[in-house]
Design goal:
The complex is a heterodimer of chains A (600) and B (366). With 600 residues, chain A is mostly beta strands. Chain A has 8 helices and 41 strands. In chain A, strands 34, 35, 37, 38 and 39 form a 5-stranded antiparallel beta sheet that branches. A 4-stranded antiparallel beta sheet of chain A has the order 1-32-31-30, with no helix packed on it. The longest helix of chain A has 13 residues. Chain B is mainly α. Helix content of chain B is 73%, strand content 0%. Classes of the chains: A mainly beta (600), B mainly alpha (366).
């Protein structure tokens, strides 16, 4: 008997607004403790009126352990007061804060760079067991290796042979020579030779001496740069995009430009964000490339570091409406705990933060079933994380927000220049999709006050096993969102591959890099909820930022795990059996757990 | 009877231009929204849709107002929805208002409610307001967003059929391509993608040209480009509108006269086209396309002497030896033959063959 239509509609409506599974009501917050913890960095990114697009994109941030003392230190990218100031010099250095182990910081000397810095990537470039850094900028791409006392030392300039693409602050510069504008960077071992390779996301051609102002084109065919009828800075549309690059890692922190081989057929498309992940479960890392205002790329790796774009056939190139949206940030995680990686993609205001679920064949767009169009469309979001902040076993969605146009504060724009960051609890079981916005508990929450957030990095800053957030904010002080969520049980897993010195004689055809980038860790909590928790080692996440390489598991009420499995990029699979929560485990490929410490 | 109808007809005649003028205004507001200029729409439209104002009961105007509010106000959904809460809407435009409500529901993730508003029963193959393409689009989109593409695809196919060049047709084609890919039908997917890309390029170009015209209404090139786009889309009425505006400002714009001639030719207004081509040639005597098209129409109309003169000007001119002039050379030969000047016809035809032409002198009627 057919079901009466009103009843069907009622059932649909009820399914949309009630019923299991309700997102966890766990209380908590991300409390901004930057000042009392000693992080007092105030970003500079041009002038407040933002007359050029460079000034609006803002900074990134990276977390890495400097000095091998087991805690996470912070590096911010920074700009200067204007394009003219950059050209005149001296430019900005990277800003480095050292952690005392308890989450209290002090600023230490930077590496002595000069430039306008944007994207940061972290990985063990020389295979010596500590984390190194790649810094991208407007006209800059530098490799920095960590020395034995924890100092980042400039090692290589990847644009050294291309003077037209570099900006050397203070040096004479000819007009009509736009430098390479690097946005996000990703370190991944594309050919699994044990040495990290570098994917460089590039944005557009902007002449620092003659940037377009108010209109693009000339004479009768000039087009005003406007948004909702207000004059704004020009771009990206109408300005030439720059093609991305791929540098093959040679070990020792050295790279060779192999863009032509790796990215044949690549179409330049205003790259803003990158996320390496294993698309088809074949053990090598593929790459999602979020582009501004045009189709995104899903670069499938053939295992030798040659990439082919399969985004359209996988359903992740365009919005569901077939439009190229302004992809700003991307993060992967297994939201529905089915063992396939899903991802979140942030976009411009008027466009939703999108959520895609991974399946055996491509992805499904779950944005609207979660209700994210209505929730997120007013926001312009940049960095993004899918992380279990409250340790209940389900991932939350964090977005760092803030508009690019100061004009957003003028009348009738429907949005604001400064916007609060947002955190949503997600729940997905079967066909049910639920979303609940986490409300700030007080004014100190990073979710409370409107700001201009851009890059963000996630990691446990104070050693309690809970992921905290460092948020880089444009023209403003950075925030430290200390995790003050819940009482669920936690486990932290650090993965390590063989050091470069150990790899020399192993004869393997596929190797894991020293920092285990790409390792896939599956954990089954003990108890009733035996659905797998999946994490992968990938520091590149969000926008222009690098998060900690250690993995954070929330076990909810479970006091331990029944099974912990690691699939190393080399192809080795290690089953580590059961264990207790409340620990920080360091696992070395082939050697099992080499360190087991209680969480603080 | 004739006497009784006269006042009614007079009234209708008086109303018709008003309707046309109102339709043009609505079109303009709709296009301003497409150009991301919602504040301009608010400024023009808001005073006219308040209760008691001239368009206060016009569902289509209220829908446009609501859409402009959605793009400019916080919270978007509630602000826009409140603009649609009118009970005394003119019944003839009620569907516009209902469809805008459904659109808002779709855009705010209230997919079940949207489908309830658009379908009499969940498996209904035809939506309410089926004469409006938007109704098919919204049902299709709501099903796709609900994760049920197989239900949505027939609605989107119908939308594409009803509105082949609509801005939203790109979106519908994309969804149809994704659905085709999901069922392994690569050929259909590829066809949809190609069509969507072509249409999307057209709309992107239209955006640029329309914006240039708005910014610099007195410049020639943007209006010419816009008219050309309309011609490309087969909308000669819109092309003529742009060209009239252009020629009012620049009487000497030969390319404008030529395009106007093209629009008239597509509309089978051959006399109008001849006049426009002549104007183009008046201002630019070497406008080869105008000359060629005028000659062709002359010949079609049986004005062989005029056709001969134009074709001769064309092929004896400085570019008469170029490959592009070959069809004109053949047409001249045929015209001369029609005029009974066999020797001249043979001479021209020989030249045509010499330059690589392969068509016979005597036209083969297909």
């Amino acid at each position: 008997m057919p079901v009466p239509y009103p009843l069907v509609l009622l059932a649909l409506a009820l399914a949309a607004c009630s019923g299991p599974p309700a997102p966890s009501p766990t209380q908590g917050d991300l409390r901004d403790e930057a000042i009392e913890r000693g992080v007092v960095h105030h970003n500079r990114s041009g002038k407040a009126d933002k007359t050029t697009i460079l000034e609006a994109n803002g900074p990134g941030v990276a977390l890495l352990d400097l000095g091998r003392d087991g805690d996470l230190d912070v590096v911010f990218s920074d700009g200067v007061g204007s394009l003219a100031e950059l050209v005149a010099g001296p430019g900005a250095d990277l800003i480095v804060y050292e952690n005392d182990g308890a989450g209290r910081f002090r600023r230490v000397a930077g590496p002595g760079l000069c430039g306008w810095w944007t994207g940061l990537a972290v990985g063990d470039l020389d295979g010596d067991g500590d984390a190194d850094l790649v810094a991208g900028g407007f006209g800059a791409l530098r490799v920095l290796l960590q020395d034995s006392d924890g100092t980042l030392v400039p090692h290589g300039d990847l644009l050294a042979g291309e003077p037209n693409l570099r900006i050397v602050p203070g040096a004479p510069r000819a007009p009509l020579a736009p430098p390479l504008w690097v946005t996000s960077l990703a370190l991944l071992d594309a050919d699994r030779d044990g040495a990290l390779d570098l994917y460089v996301g590039c944005y557009l051609e902007l002449d620092p001496l003659r940037p377009p102002l108010r209109e693009l084109g000339e004479g009768a065919l000039a087009v005003p740069c406007s948004w909702k009828g207000y004059d704004v800075f020009c771009g990206p549309h109408g300005m030439p995009p720059q093609p991305d690059r791929f540098y093959r890692g040679l070990g020792g922190g050295n790279f060779r430009d192999e863009s032509a081989r790796a990215l044949g057929g690549h179409v330049a498309s205003y790259t803003l964000a990158l996320a390496p992940f294993d698309l088809e479960g074949d053990g090598d890392l593929d790459l999602y490339v979020a582009n501004d205002s045009v189709a995104n790329l899903l670069l499938q790796n053939d295992g030798q570091g040659v990439f082919t774009d399969v985004a359209y056939s996988a359903g992740v190139a365009l919005s569901m409406d077939g439009r190229g949206e302004a992809g700003m940030g991307v993060a992967f995680g297994d939201i529905d705990r089915d063992g396939d990686l899903d991802f979140a993609l942030t976009n411009f205001s008027g466009e939703p933060t999108a959520v895609y679920f991974g399946h055996a064949r491509g992805f499904s767009n779950e944005t609207f079933r979660f209700g994210l169009q209505r929730e997120s469309a007013p926001l312009l979001s940049w960095s993004v994380h899918l992380e279990d902040f409250d340790a209940d076993g389900e991932l939350e969605l964090f977005t760092a927000n803030g508009h690019v146009y100061p004009q957003a504060d003028l009348v009738d724009t429907g949005t604001r220049y400064l916007q609060p960051d947002t955190l949503w609890r997600l729940s997905a079981r079967g066909d049910e999709r639920r979303l609940a916005r986490v409300q700030p508990t007080d004014a100190r929450s990073v979710l409370a006050s409107p700001s201009g957030s851009r890059g963000s990095a996630l990691g446990d800053l104070d050693g309690d096993g809970a992921p905290d957030l460092v948020i880089a904010r444009i023209d403003a002080p950075a925030a430290l969102g200390m995790n003050r969520f819940g009482s669920g049980h936690r486990l932290v897993v650090r993965c390590e591959g063989p050091r470069a010195s150990e790899r020399l004689a192993d004869g393997a055809t596929a190797r894991t890099s020293a920092d285990a980038t790409g390792a896939r860790v599956e954990l089954v909590p003990e108890g009733a909820d035996a659905r797998v928790l999946l994490r992968t080692v990938a520091t590149t996440v969000g926008f222009q930022s690098a998060s900690a390489s250690e993995l954070y598991f929330g076990l909810g009420p479970a006091r331990g795990y029944a099974r912990l499995t690691i699939r190393w990029p080399s192809g080795r699979v290690e089953e580590l059996g059961a264990g207790e929560a409340g620990r920080r485990l360091t696992v070395r490929e082939g050697r099992g757990i080499v360190r087991d410490e209680p969480l603080r | 009877m004739k006497l009784a109808l006269a006042p009614l007809l007079a009234l209708l005649a008086a109303l018709a231009p008003q309707d046309a003028e109102l339709a043009a205004r609505k079109q303009r507001w709709s296009e301003l929204l497409a150009l991301d200029l919602p504040r301009a729409v608010l400024a023009e439209l808001e005073p006219q849709v308040l209760p008691g104002a001239p368009l206060g009961r016009d569902g289509a105007a209220l829908a446009l107002w609501s859409r402009a509010v959605f793009a400019t106000h916080e919270p978007a959904f509630e602000s826009a929805w409140s603009r649609l809460e009118r009970r005394d809407v003119d019944p003839a435009t009620r569907a516009d208002l209902e469809l805008e409500r459904a659109r808002l529901l779709v855009e705010s993730d209230q997919l079940a409610r949207a489908l309830g508003a658009l379908l009499d029963e969940p498996r209904a193959p035809v939506p309410r307001f089926a004469d409006r393409p938007a109704s098919w689009l919204l049902v299709g989109r709501a099903w796709f967003r609900s994760g049920e593409p197989e239900r949505g695809a027939p609605f989107l196919s119908k939308f594409v059929e009803l509105a082949p060049r609509d801005r939203e047709t790109c979106s519908a084609l994309h969804l149809l391509a994704q659905a085709a890919l999901a069922r392994g039908d690569g050929a259909t997917a590829q066809a949809c993608v190609r069509r969507a890309e072509e249409l999307s390029r057209w709309h992107a170009l239209w955006n640029v040209r329309a914006r240039q015209v708005l910014e610099k209404p007195d410049e020639r090139l943007p209006r010419l480009g816009l008219a050309q786009l309309w011609l490309q889309a087969g909308d000669t009425r819109r092309a003529r509108t742009e060209l009239r505006a252009l020629l009012e400002r620049h009487l000497d714009c030969a390319p404008g006269w030529f395009l106007l001639g093209e629009a008239q030719r597509f509309e089978r207004d051959l006399e109008g086209a001849l006049a426009s081509y002549s104007k183009a040639l008046e201002w630019e005597p070497t406008h080869l396309l105008a000359l060629n098209n005028r000659a062709t129409i002359h010949r079609l109309e049986g004005r062989l002497a005029e056709a001969r003169a134009d074709f001769e000007r064309l092929v004896d001119g400085p570019r008469g030896c170029e490959a592009a002039a070959l069809p004109a050379l053949l047409a001249l030969a045929r015209t001369l033959a029609d005029l009974g000047d066999e020797s001249a016809a043979a001479q021209r035809y020989a030249r045509y063959r010499e330059l690589g032409g392969r068509e016979p002198l005597v036209e083969v009627r297909r």
